[in-house]
Design brief:
By secondary structure, this protein is an alpha+beta fold. Helices cover about 35% and strands about 25% of the residues. The chain has helices at about 10-15, 35-45, 60-70, 85-95, 120-130, 140-150, 170-175, and strands at about 1-5, 30, 55-60, 70-75, 95-105, 110-120, 135-140. A 4-stranded mixed sheet has the order 2-6-5-4. A hairpin with a 5-residue loop joins strand 5 (about 95-105) and strand 6. The protein starts with a strand and ends with a helix.
């Protein structure tokens, strides 16, 4: 499962039709986030303008793996085993961006652990928007309910999805992702 936050028109269309269309742009990169709290940090718990609708998007695991296999790191510092020129060429020719960022706690404070983001464009965004999705859920009400616990510092009552590091059977992909 990955998360995204959109304005009402895009989010409602996606939930109703179970694909991205309507006002969703296939001509710009879209970023998917498999980490719930990172998405809450990014969207301000669904309070930022244009990010009021939070979606939980269930993807085919084969599609998710394909994204990662074809991704290029956004920063040379995150790439390993290639020259700066090779990294630059890979980045320029890839339709998928990959980056590890600090995760955040419920209040938005940076954590030591990292959270991955995946940016999709070109043929990958088309596939993501229509073929790769199993289910799109509007979890905006859940987000608003949980945000109240954060605002009232009642973290013992906060519910967040259980997330664990995901290891692929592909050892090369795990190495690329720095997953041991």
């Amino acid at each position: 499962m990955v998360y995204q936050a959109y304005r009402k028109e895009i989010g409602e269309f996606a939930v109703k039709n179970q694909f991205f269309g309507g006002e969703f742009s296939l001509n710009r990169m879209t970023w998917i986030k498999p980490n719930f709290l990172w998405m809450m940090y990014r969207s301000g718990w669904g309070t930022k303008e244009g990010q009021e609708i939070t979606l939980a998007i269930h993807l085919k695991i084969s599609a998710f793996q394909n994204y990662l296999e074809n991704a290029a790191y956004t920063s040379f510092a995150q790439s390993e085993g290639i020259s700066h020129e090779e990294w630059r060429n890979e980045l320029e020719n890839s339709s998928i961006r990959l980056q590890w960022d600090p995760d955040h706690d419920p209040h938005g404070k940076k954590e030591d652990r990292r959270a991955i983001q995946i940016g999709l464009r070109d043929n990958f965004i088309n596939s993501f928007a229509t073929k790769d999705i199993l289910l799109i859920e509007d979890i905006s009400e859940f987000v608003r309910e949980q945000h109240k616990f954060v605002q009232n510092n009642q973290l013992a009552d906060l519910l967040v999805p259980e997330e664990k590091p995901f290891k692929f059977s592909n050892a090369d992909l795990n190495s690329k992702l720095k997953i041991s």
